[in-house]
Amino acid sequence: MRTLTAFAAAAFALASWTAAAQTSAPKPPAKAKPAAARVAPTPPMGWNSWNFFFGKVTDADIRHAADEMVETGMKDAGYVYVNIDDTWEGERDANGVIHSNAKFPDMKALADYVHSKGLKIGIYSGPGPKTCAGYEGSLGHEEQDAKTYAEWGIDYLKYDACSFIPQVMEKQAPNDKAEQMRIMEAAYAKMGKALKATGRPIVYSFCEYGWDAPWEWAPAAGGNLWRTTGDVQPNWDRIAVIGFSQDGLERYAGPGHWNDPDMLEVGNGKLTLAENRSHFSLWAMLAAPLLAGNDLPNMKPEIKAILTNRDVIAIDQDKLGRQGSRGYAEGEVEVWTRHLEGGALAIALFNMADNGRFGAHPFHLSLSRLGLEGPQAGKDLWSGKATTLTDKEPIELGKHDVLLVRVDKPVWKNRK
Ligand code: GLA
After folding, report:
1. Where residue 394 sits, what CATH number does that domain have?
2. Which of 117, 247, 288, 300 has a beta carbon 3.0–4.6 Å from 326's, enabling a disulfide?
3. Is it the case that residue 378 has pLDDT exceeding 90?
4. Which residue segment(s) compose the domain that 394 sits in?
5. Which of 86, 89, 205 has the most ligand 1 atoms within 8 A of CB, as the residue to mutate?
6. Is 85 in the pocket of ligand 1 (CB under 6 A)?
C-alpha cells in the first residue's frame, strides 16, 4: 500500500513536472541552417496574387500591389514580398529557356519596378511538367529555371507539386508510395540545389500540401517553408480546420524553416471582421508566413487595420521563432499560447461557437491549465488596452472572435 502510494506520488510528481515543462519552460528553438536563417530568419511577410486574382493576374496587378504595399503602410509594417503565383508562364525557346506569357511582357522590368519600391519579388513554378493551372513547369529544366529567375532578380520561389504527383511519381513508381515519396523529396532537393547554385538569396517555399510530412525533410532539401495542408479558402470553417490542426508541428518551426498553413484570406470572401481578426491572430500564433492575398487597391480601412496591426505582427515575427501550440480546448473554446523572446507569452482565446442565442457565451479561462499562477498583466492586442487575465474569469467573445493578449512577464506556477 505504502509502495503504491509512493509510486503514485512519484508518478503524479512526474506528470506535474511534465505538464509544467510543456506549458512553461521554453525549449531552445529548432536549429536553423545558417544560410536558411539568412533568407527567412522570421516567417516571410508579403502578398501573393493567387487568393484574389487566381489565373487572371497581370503585370499591372503586380505593380499595383507593390504600389499599394507602400501606400497603405503595409511595407512599413513589415510586408516585403510581392509574389506572382501561377499563370505567368509562357513557352520555352529552342534552348529550353522559359519565357513569361503575354500577361507579363517583361519579367526583368517588373522585378526592377518592385525592387525600386524597396520590396522583393516572388515567382511560382513546380517540379512537374505542368503547374496546377496547366502552365509550363520546371521538370528537366531546374537549373536553367533557377538561373533565369536569378537573372530576372527573383527573391522567392513557390514550388508546387501538382502534375508531378500523377505524371512523375505515380508513373515512375506505381503502387510504391515509399518510392514515390523519395522521388518527391529528390525533386524538391534538386531545385533547392539549383537555387543555391545561383548564389542569389532566394526564399524557397514548398507547396506539396503536407504530403509525406515535409516538416521532417524539407529543411534538408533547402526549404524555408512548406505547406502543411491543402488549399485555404475564404471561409471560416476551412481556416479553422487548417489553423487549429497545426498543433504538434511547432517543434519543426524555427528561424529559416517554417510551417506554412497557406496564405492569408484576410479581406477575402465573406469573412466577418471577427473571423478576419481570428485568422490573422491564429496565423501569428503559428509563426506562419503572413502573405496577404486580398485586393490591395480596394482594401477597406478595417481590413488594413487588421493586416497592419503591429502588435499582432510582432507576435508572428518574434525573433525566438517558436511556433505556438494549443494550451487546451474546452467546449467551444480554443486556448493557444506562444513563447516569445525575453520570456514573454502570447495567449489567444478563440470562440468557435456558431451563431445562435448562446453563441457568445461567457466561458472560464483557466490560467492554471496553462501553467500560470495568479493574475497576469498584459496588453489586449486588438483593443490596444492594458488588461489583466485572472483564473476562472468569465470571458465573453463574439462568434468566431478572438482575445489575443501579450503578457511580458508571465507568472508561472512552481517557478521561483
Ligand atoms: C495550388 C496551390 C495554390 C495555388 C494554385 C495555383 O492549388 O496550392 O496555392 O498556387 O495551385 O494554380
Report:
1. 2.60.40.1180
2. 247
3. yes
4. 324-416
5. 86
6. yes
